[in-house]
Amino acid sequence: MPKMDTFRQGGTPFDGFLYAELGQDRDGKSVSVLSALARLGVDPWDEAADLADMPQDGARVRLGDLLARFRDVPALGGGNATVILRLVSLLPKAPARTSGQQTDLPAIAKAVGFGPIIAILLVVLVLVQTFFLGANGSGN
Predict the structure, then answer these.
(1) For 68-105, how does the pLDDT look when each residue is reduced to its tens digit (9 = 90+)?
(2) Which of 140, 53, 134, 116 is nearest to 88 (CA)?
(3) Most buried residue, 21, 48, 80, 99, by most Cβ within 10 Å?
(4) pTM for this structure?
(5) Cα(91)–Cα(129) distance, rounded to whole angstroms?
């Protein structure tokens, strides 16, 4: 899964995972996965993307290792296996990868839009016209 685009407007595919509540810290404040990862010095969106790319077993182990280092939420101390299972289930599923993926030109055109394509075609048309007919206003 690609890394997050920081300029993206609206929600992200990782919101369900990142904003899931882990419990309350010692001060009684609610702690989300996002705040726990940030407190551990890990970029939450990059970590969520990495976890989403992994098989579920690998994601559970990695997330378990991260949360084992996080001591601010006392409820995570002993039995956090059910919490980890719940959190991993909130990650978006990585798209199925096939060998020899083909590029779908209409999908690329939809993503880019037709404006840049038309602009390139117009520039090519002007260059071809200039080459075959000569530049207008040359004085001869």
Answers:
(1) 888 888 877 765 788 889 999 999 886 544 444 555 55
(2) 53
(3) 48
(4) 0.60
(5) 54
Give every CB contact of residue 12 below 8 A, 6+ residues apart in sequence.
4, 18, 45
23: left (phi over 0), alpha (psi -120 to 50) or beta: left
The Cα angle at residue 46 between residues 26 and 23, in degrees rounded to 5? 20
Measured CA distances, 139 to 98, 106, 126, 127 (Å): 60, 45, 19, 19
The token pair at 69 is 């280092």
Residue pair 75/23 in contact (Cβ under 8 Å)? The answer is yes
Q: Which helix (H) or strand (E) holds 4?
A: none
In a 3-state reduction of DSSP, which class is residue 40? coil
